[in-house]
């Protein structure tokens, strides 16, 4: 692979700058930074950098084309693909998808990214046209009763596949011809079950290429993994970006004397690939991946490392502990991509993050000033940002910045403009402080700027805690490896906050992504889906597959010139427990398992069980293990090594100057050093500033920087001067505690998702986690499911009133009178104790939807229930854990107890119930640990004081909202709406503009009903807190303070306050939506949304399945409503169609939008969807829905949306309307057609 006497170039072409690291023939190292786009001076930044370095080193004038014979290799990472995706500037393309699923990728997983935004913004799909391919296959099922006579084939995974409809070639050609006539020549193809049956996709590709398409990407080639939605997104990305990449590569190659130049490109997985194999779907993280390789190869020794890459608009964090951590499904620019990628977590906090003061709280981001206009100091009229705060504190020195600002791009950073802007913000903050409290010290300008720095640091600590603690790692044991332009200013403070003792900053930290390219290896990956059990019968077949993939990788790398001794292969099986969706990529253990026949490559079972135990806290003995995919990662060892050492110095480090910089507590004299003046062995005590050409490093007080023999900087972090934080309100600490409280709830949620095994919790994310004070009042609620907001507070407080709660107890509850909402939502409550306190000092709780808890209908969502006993197992104050012992026998007895009632069954899925309950207990234990950790840092009195301050802040935000409303609307507002059965929800709101309070009076609401539309009081509270948060319009803590200004009046025994025995399952999922519609109507916030969750359950005595169907969102004063999305009180994800058909005896015949159903107006309402499911065996089906009689209202003269419809379609038989709420036993071949806002279905005769 090596050619002596030639140049080696490693390049990171970023969005703003292109960084170049070069090794010259004489061994000299060159580093260069250029603007990525500078058309007046050069056509291509990487080529220009290569030209300049070669010209200077060879001392000859060079023009393009450059002499490629002088170059050993070029390695490059590029944001060309990322930027094209972010800016939607890729190739015009079309999507070919199985007929009936034309809008599948538009609908996605049905969820909305920001649950409190009225204007639901989801990035547009990448395709311009859709071709519905008439073809259909389905998987063979032993329980199928359709009597299929179609051709049966064996897929790539060895699964049997029925070809229900062969490819309609003539229709396909006609449709593709129309696409070509529009000038579109790039096509993405994704067909149902093509991960295993590839024939139809391959036929589409052949036809399309023959017709003149230039790029045809197949999902079965790009990423042959089950799940059509992420696979479809991935193949669209490939078709959208690969032509752009090819165009860029062609242009790049044209500047060299030979097109055969040895160029390798960095992929998202951290490996290099030949120029002809670089494609769109694996290029998204091309640049950042180089940085991960760079810090992994330079800073990892005996401690795991956290990579901290802080840029202008965001910060990337990642982890390395001897091997790269990969994910196989991620979201970039709103597009879910299914491809191997380094696990890089991004938080919207960077140097350009904007600063706000809202209702008494310091807020940093997520909005960014960007490059234009940029921060205030950029002289373009931009807002205050984190960069401005550092400048104001004397941590950035303008004289060492390039003079590229101002109209003539020849001025330095504008310190005066920054200080004036901070003076204005300081006055605003001090006015608020003086109006809220008396006797409080007002803040200085520097204290305000320092406050924003501290809040920004805490926001960047959150993803690092999540990356480590959620996975069972101790954050304190890590080294913080800092790179990127802005990270050095924050590294010491972040490391100290996280308990880390060492920061590492590489000498090339400003260009570490480019340097990482030089250190990277060449990668060739081969993967094959299998869908095989892992047992002694299947292991020989798996070994054959592994051998074939190894041979493919070795051959590919050999063809690139690698010798056998420089090729290694890593083998992975993508393994999961049967009936779960969480697969783990597992390498074989070298330790033999004497109790199990192992693969010749090692013991994959041992690895899987050990990883599952570590990640999720348990294993599932006796459960089959499935291998979804076999993956081999071929590695061509080619990374260079940098042996350059820095000479030691016997002189003290030269001080460039001394400046005054501000730290917590005041100004300190701070020595300034230039990196070029420092040598091996130099020790620099903080406070100090080290300035490099591309970055500024802040060494904080009580920290010590040392220069290593390689010229890198290691900073040892001291404990720092203890900062007294008292119980009195401090606006800066308020923001920090808000982050910490919310982080507790979020980490609980991640633990619950990871440790649960059911589809509902792990995949549909139908759960919520929260923290409560010693009075049971809500402190923080992670924004999971809106319908759970505020409702769990009633559940906690009911237990406090009712039973004695001891350390080691966990309480299980779901009864509506005990703060529950409906029986499948099981709430687990755990008290938090600390030594010397006999009463709980906090509570943690979570609520998760279980797929079945018994009752008259599989799925425990009956349409015909008339009492609580029809709906499943009931828990009021059940001790799930007593004295630290999980009460499995007792909880099993209760879960099975509904069978004592006529027509009822006990739970139909006991194993999953118990596993998910254990996961809920584990999530609470994580919450307890985090609360205790917070108390150990600050003390109980301070933590509880800030709990109260946080609650008061939410109260202030709501009071301000109500005052603003009273200024533009009458003091007394009213609205009403009807349920389909005629029941009225009536609301009258009277606002006190002086106090900023309101009475929500539901007098006139209909009495409780015999059906299940009754909504417990907790649901109304959830609907109100959700609506108020939406109306506020910006982030506020979700806690009991939101309801403090609200006086709630609900008539007893009305539909919103039923008696203890009333059926309530529909109240939670239907009436809740109508309450929100009434509130939004009253405040004139937006038109009605679909007002329903379209609940569908089916099953038999062996299983129950529950799902919800999206619809249209209401339009607003300045926006159109989003189509095909979940709205208001729910935000659960849908099950992927391939998983849906793989696990259950059904076929998804159609899932598409219904244009024109959202209601016309200046701003149109979002359209509903049609979802048609065909059943393959006898099952009991239940539908629970609304808006089948009364249309969703329009606002301000806009038209209402259409009503929905539930139809049963019998093969060659009549179409039968099921009505809004009904159940039926369906026979094989019957289809359910649900329209969430519908056009009447007309079936072809």
From TrEMBL:
Provide the Hydantoinase/oxoprolinase N-terminal domain boundaries: 9-211
- The residues covered by the Acetophenone carboxylase-like C-terminal domain are 540-705
Q: Where is the Hydantoinase A/oxoprolinase domain?
A: 231-525
Output the InterPro entries linked to this UniProt entry.
Answer: ACX-like_C, Hydant_A_N, Hydantoinase_A, Hydantoinase_B, Oxoprolinase-like
Q: Which residues form the Hydantoinase B/oxoprolinase domain?
A: 730-1238
What is the similarity comment for this entry? Belongs to the oxoprolinase family.
The identity of this protein, by name, is 5-oxoprolinase
């Amino acid at each position: 692979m090596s050619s002596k006497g030639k140049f080696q170039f490693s390049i990171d072409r970023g969005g703003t700058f292109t960084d170049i690291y070069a090794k010259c023939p004489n061994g000299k190292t060159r580093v260069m930074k250029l603007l990525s786009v500078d058309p007046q001076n050069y056509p291509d930044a990487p080529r220009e950098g290569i030209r300049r370095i070669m010209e200077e080193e060879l001392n000859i004038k060079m023009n393009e084309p450059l002499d490629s014979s002088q170059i050993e290799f070029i390695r490059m990472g590029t944001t060309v693909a990322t930027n094209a995706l972010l800016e939607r500037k890729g190739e015009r393309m079309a999507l070919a998808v199985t007929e009936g699923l034309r809008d599948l990728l538009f609908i996605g997983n049905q969820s909305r990214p920001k649950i409190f935004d009225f204007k639901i913004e989801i990035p547009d799909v990448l395709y311009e046209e859709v071709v519905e391919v008439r073809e259909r296959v389905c998987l063979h099922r032993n329980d199928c009763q359709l009597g299929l006579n179609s051709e049966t084939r064996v897929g790539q995974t060895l699964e049997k596949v029925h070809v229900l409809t062969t490819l309609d070639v003539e229709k396909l050609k006609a449709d593709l011809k129309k696409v070509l006539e529009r000038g579109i020549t790039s096509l993405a193809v994704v067909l149902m079950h093509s991960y295993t049956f590839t024939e139809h996709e391959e036929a589409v590709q052949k036809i399309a290429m023959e017709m003149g398409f230039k790029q045809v990407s197949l999902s079965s080639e790009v990423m042959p993994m089950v799940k059509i939605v992420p696979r479809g997104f991935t193949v669209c990305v490939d078709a959208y970006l690969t032509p752009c990449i090819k165009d860029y590569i062609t242009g790049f190659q044209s500047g060299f004397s030979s097109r055969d130049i040895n160029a390798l490109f960095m992929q998202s997985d951290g490996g290099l690939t030949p120029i002809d194999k670089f494609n769109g779907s694996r290029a998204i993280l091309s640049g950042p991946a180089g940085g991960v390789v760079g810090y992994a190869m330079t800073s990892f020794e005996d401690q795991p490392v956290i990579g901290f890459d802080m840029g202008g608009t965001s910060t990337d964090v990642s982890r390395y502990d001897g091997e790269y951590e990969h994910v196989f499904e991620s979201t970039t620019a709103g597009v879910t991509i299914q491809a191997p990628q380094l696990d890089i977590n991004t938080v919207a906090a960077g140097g350009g993050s904007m600063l706000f003061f809202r209702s008494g709280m310091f807020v940093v981001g997520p909005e960014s000033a960007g490059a234009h206009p940029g921060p205030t100091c950029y002289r373009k009229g931009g807002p205050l940002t984190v960069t401005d705060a550092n400048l104001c504190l004397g941590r950035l020195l303008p004289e060492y910045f390039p003079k590229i600002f101002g109209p003539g791009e020849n001025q330095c950073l504008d310190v005066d403009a920054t200080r004036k802007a901070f003076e204005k913000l300081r006055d605003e903050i001090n006015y608020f402080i003086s109006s809220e409290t008396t006797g409080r010290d007002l803040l200085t300008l520097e204290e305000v700027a320092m406050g924003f720095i501290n809040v920004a640091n805490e926001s960047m600590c959150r993803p690092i805690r999540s990356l480590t603690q959620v996975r069972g790692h101790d954050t304190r044991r890590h080294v913080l490896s800092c790179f990127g332009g802005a990270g050095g200013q924050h590294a010491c403070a972040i490391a100290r906050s996280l308990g880390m003792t060492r920061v590492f900053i590489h000498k090339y930290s400003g260009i570490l992504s480019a340097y990482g390219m030089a250190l990277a290896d060449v990668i060739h990956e081969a993967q094959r889906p299998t869908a095989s059990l892992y047992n002694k019968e299947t292991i020989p077949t798996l070994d054959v597959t592994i051998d074939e993939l190894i041979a493919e990788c070795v051959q590919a790398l050999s063809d690139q010139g690698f010798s056998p001794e420089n090729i290694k292969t890593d083998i992975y099986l993508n393994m999961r427990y049967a009936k779960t969706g969480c697969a783990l990529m597992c390498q074989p253990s070298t330790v033999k398992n004497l109790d199990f026949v192992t693969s010749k490559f090692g013991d994959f079972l041992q690895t899987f069980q050990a990883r599952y135990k570590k990640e999720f806290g348990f294993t599932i003995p006796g459960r089959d293990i499935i291998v979804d995919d076999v993956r081999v990662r071929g590695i061509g060892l080619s990374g260079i090594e940098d042996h350059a050492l820095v000479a030691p110095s016997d002189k003290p480090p030269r001080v460039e100057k001394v400046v005054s910089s501000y730290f917590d507590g005041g100004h300190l004299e701070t020595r300034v050093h230039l990196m070029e003046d420092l040598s091996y062995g130099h020790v620099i005590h903080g406070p100090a500033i080290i300035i490099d050409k591309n970055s500024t490093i802040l060494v904080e007080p009580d920290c010590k920087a040392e220069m290593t023999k390689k010229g890198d900087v290691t900073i040892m972090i001291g404990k720092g001067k203890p900062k007294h934080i008292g119980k009195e309100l401090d606006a800066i600490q308020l923001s920090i505690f808000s982050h910490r409280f919310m982080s507790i709830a979020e980490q609980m949620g991640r633990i619950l998702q990871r440790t649960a095994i059911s589809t509902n919790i792990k995949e549909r994310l139908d759960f919520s986690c929260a923290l409560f004070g010693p009075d049971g009042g809500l402190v923080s609620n992670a924004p999971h499911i809106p319908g759970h907001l505020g409702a769990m507070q009633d559940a906690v407080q009911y237990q406090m009133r009712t039973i004695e709660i001891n350390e080691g107890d966990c309480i299980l509850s779901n009864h509506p009178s005990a703060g529950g909402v409906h029986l499948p939502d099981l709430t687990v409550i755990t008290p938090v104790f600390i030594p010397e306190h006999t009463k709980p000092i906090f509570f943690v709780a979570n609520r998760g939807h279980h797929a079945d808890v018994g009752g008259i209908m599989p799925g425990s969502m009956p349409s015909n229930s008339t009492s609580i006993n029809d709906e499943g197992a009931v828990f009021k104050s059940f001790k799930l854990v007593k004295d630290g012992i999980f009460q499995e026998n007792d909880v099993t007895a209760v879960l099975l107890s509904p069978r004592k009632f006529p027509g009822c069954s006990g739970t139909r899925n006991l194993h999953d119930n118990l596993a998910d309950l254990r996961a809920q207990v584990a999530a609470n234990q994580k919450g307890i640990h985090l609360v205790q950790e917070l108390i150990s840092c600050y003390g109980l009195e301070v933590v509880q004081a800030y709990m109260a301050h946080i609650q008061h802040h939410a109260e202030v935000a709501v009071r301000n909202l109500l005052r603003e409303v009273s200024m533009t609307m009458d003091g007394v507002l009213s609205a009403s709406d009807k349920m389909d059965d005629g029941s009225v929800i009536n609301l009258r709101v009277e606002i006190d503009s002086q106090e900023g309070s309101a009475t929500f009076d539901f007098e006139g609401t209909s009495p409780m009903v015999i059906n299940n539309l009754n909504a417990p009081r907790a649901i109304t509270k959830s609907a109100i807190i959700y609506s108020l948060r939406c109306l506020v319009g910006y982030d506020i803590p979700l806690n009991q303070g939101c309801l403090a200004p609200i006086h709630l009046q609900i008539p007893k025994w009305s539909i919103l306050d039923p008696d203890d025995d009333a059926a309530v399952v529909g109240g939670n999922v239907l009436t809740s939506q109508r309450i929100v519609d009434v509130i939004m109507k009253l405040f004139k916030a937006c038109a009605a949304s679909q007002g329903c969750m379209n609940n569908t359950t089916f099953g038999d005595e062996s299983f129950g399945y529950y799902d919800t169907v999206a619809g249209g969102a209401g339009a607003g004063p300045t926006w159109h409503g989003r189509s095909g999305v979940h709205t208001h009180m729910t935000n659960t994800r849908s099950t992927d169609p391939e998983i849906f058909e793989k696990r259950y005896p059904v076929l998804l015949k159609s899932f598409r939008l219904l244009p024109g159903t959202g209601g016309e107006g200046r701003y149109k309402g979002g359209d509903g969807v049609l979802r048609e499911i065909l059943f393959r065996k006898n099952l009991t089906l239940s539908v629970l829905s609304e808006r089948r009689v009364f249309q969703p209202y329009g606002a301000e003269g806009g038209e209402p949306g259409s009503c929905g419809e539930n139809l049963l379609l019998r093969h060659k038989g009549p179409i039968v309307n099921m009505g809004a709420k009904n159940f039926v036993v369906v026979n094989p071949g019957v289809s359910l057609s649900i329209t969430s806002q519908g056009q009447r279905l007309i079936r072809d005769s």
